[in-house]
Amino acid sequence: MNNKVLSLYDWFLIVGVIVSNVVYSLMTGTLDVLGSLAGITGVLCVVLVAKGSIWNYLFGVVNVSLYAYISYKAALYGDAGLNAVYYLPMQFIGWWQWRKRGAAVSKSEADGNGVQVKARRFNWGQRAVLALSCAVAVVAMGFVLNELGDPQPFKDSATTVLSIVAQALMALAFMEQWALWIITNVISVIMWSICVVRGEAHAGVMVIMWVFYLLNSVNGLRVWLKLSKGQ
Question: Which pTM was predicted?
Answer without folding.
Answer: 0.78
